[in-house]
Amino acid sequence: MILGIVGAEGAKFTKAGEEQARTIIRALLSQSDVTLMVSGGCHLGGADIYAEEEAAALGIPTRVHKPKQLTWDGGYKQRNILIAEDADVVHNIVVDVLPDSYDSMRFESCYHCKTKEHIKSGGCWTAKHAQKLGKKAEWHLVRNYTVQSFVPGNFTTSWKTAPGSSCPRCHSPVEFRLWESQDTAFEDEQYRCTNVLCGYSWWVESSDY
Length: 209
Known about the structure:
- It is a single chain.
- This protein has about 210 residues and is an alpha/beta fold.
- It has 4 helices and 10 strands; from the N terminus they run βαβαβαβαββββββ.
- It has helices at about 15-30, 45-60, 70-85, 120-130, and strands at about 1-5, 35-40, 60-65, 90-95, 135-140, 155, 160-165, 175-180, 185-195, 200-205.
- The strands form 2 sheets. A 5-stranded parallel sheet has the order 3-2-1-4-5, with helices on both faces. Strands 6, 7, 8, 9 and 10 form a 5-stranded antiparallel sheet that branches.
- α4 (about 120-130) links the parallel β4 and β5 (about 135-140).
- The chain is globular.
- The two termini are about 30 Å apart.
- The relative contact order is 0.16.
- The model has no long low-confidence stretch (mean pLDDT about 90).
């Protein structure tokens, strides 16, 4: 499976946010069927570069599509299209709020996704384009100012239908898979919408064993 990993630039992550993003990326890349990671080599750092570094640490081959020029037409747009075309699934790492130190352009909402639940990212455009191609795309929300504890672990099942469950956003059928901590102390469930035009995903935490 070829994973596309995209998302926010480096300045949009706090240190805690970067740690969360890297943990998410490592979990995604640790799936047994991953054969290649494709990304965009963003010159501003962030999710693209975290993905390259984590893939290298895990020994996973990478394909990096850097823009030919730093403009939308002739550069970023074509780069994003290549990522969406190459990937079997696109994972988009977004943040809930901007760091206090962020001093560039701000938007009231993500105009790609028409939501205030996360900060706008070019990765949203790439994920949306993948959906237009009939591919899966998932959004992963990083909380820049929420303290969370992360432990290593792995997915223990493949995606399977979740009977009786539906997407909280579009009410389509959903799939789920199980994740278990490395010390087997607890097991969580990750859900995703089967409607490729929605692409919503979320986690349900279980009680500790």
